[in-house]
Known about the structure:
three-stranded antiparallel β-sheet; 2 helices
Amino acid sequence: MHPEVLADKPGACPTSGMALEPVDLSATTDRVEYTCPMHPQIVRFGPGPCPIRGMALEPRNVSADTANPELLSMTRRFWIGGGLFKVTEGVYQVRGFSLCPKEPWS
């Protein structure tokens, strides 16, 4: 009721007589700063685009235990692209050599 009243120990509010509640500081420390990888002077308190170049802002403090959706997407595209390359390479080896002339220089 009176947020300006603070005390070091449990007790009653001197103004209203109600029991004092502990202050929850975890809500204020959960803010994550986002910064641009190319422009470190750009700092925001939420994800979004960089106002200079439009790049995606990234969290300033990244922990290794959180899943990175950008890394998962890039890994998936890498493996799909590599698989398509192998299929194309196999088709060229089976069919491609027969399409080449026997003596291209003559």
